[in-house]
Amino acid sequence: MVDAKLGAAQPAESAGMQEDRLEFLASHGGPFFELQRRLNLVHERSLHTGRRILLFVAAAWAVPLLLTLPTLASETPTLRAYLTDPGPWARFLVGIAAFLAAEQSVEAGLRRKLGQFLRAPLIPPASQESAISALDKALARRNSIPAEVVCLALAVFSAVLAFATFKQAPLTNWAATVTGDVHHLTLAGWWCVFISIPLFIFLFCRGVWRHLVWAKLLRSIAHLDLRLVSTHPDGKGGLAFVGDYPNAYVLFVFGVSCGMAAAVAKHQMQADLSAATLTTIMAAWLLIVLAFFAYPLSAFSKPLTQMKDRTLLTLSARATIQQRGAERKAIGENVVAPDAKEAEQSIDPVDLTKQYEQTRKLSSMLVNRKTLLPVAAAALIPFAIAGASKLPYKEVFSVLKKLLLI
Questions:
Q1: How many CB atoms are closer than 10 A to CB 211?
Q2: pTM reported for the whole predicted model
Q3: Contact 226, 184 (CB under 8 A)
């Protein structure tokens, strides 16, 4: 594998070289990446994010805009309708740009998190072979041709649904015109059916699939015999760094949320949307997003819980021996169940109180509101903007604040 350097570890191996042995480039590999590479849109060492954003947004958003210009001379100009429709702005401009920009941040973020497992080091030498085996499987899933074919099929299906939706529109708009009872798609409408909508859905599905691949890899690592320690200052046994990996997906979540919020905004143009309904939609979407990222992180709860329980029992036993020895030293004997053999035991002078308290406070949950606040904000802000277009700003802001501070 080009992406996984599997050379045997040497004693003098640097931290950087250790990290390279577990390298998962989330945005590389697969048929779509290879196609872009052949077209010189990406390189093995660079995703050329800015250039691809300009190209893809131009194809998805700018071309339909240009295709509405000839209608300016007709009785039913569609340029204004296109520019006032939140759908194209949210999906074809902001959404696609966010998906492509997210590839860079996701790849860099996941690479750092995976490297930390060896830099710490959390994976002992005896388990590194198993970790590399799990990585090989993840790379095979990432490069899967059938997976991207399914993503493409879903994109085609979305195009069919869009075609049906445009044909059922009751009034003339930028995507379709109505003459009597007959609907005709405009040039902009046809372009969106064949290019813009499938591209948005394909990038979305591809991003979701690759996160599921990463999730499976994380869950495989969670089942290894990790070098955890209950008194680690991060309060998570040394795994707190994994818990904030979702922040690498802020742009991706923002792009998806913009696409969904556009539907809410469009509904508001046609009918009133109450604050209660908006709150329900935002809360449901927030739960879905949090569950999406909680799935891989939940696998670490079991080893953390087991370590906490075992450590507390061990510390409790040692503390009992230590404190009974201190009692004998202070008053000459143990008040309860004195034992001559026990009196001959040496006393460990180390105070275990602080270690016990730290272990007792250890959290086995890597998911919490504080670490996922950026992702939660990215999920909710587009809906808040859509709601604020009709509802009072203070009311929408109050809903947003409550959901973020739950």
A1: 21
A2: 0.87
A3: no
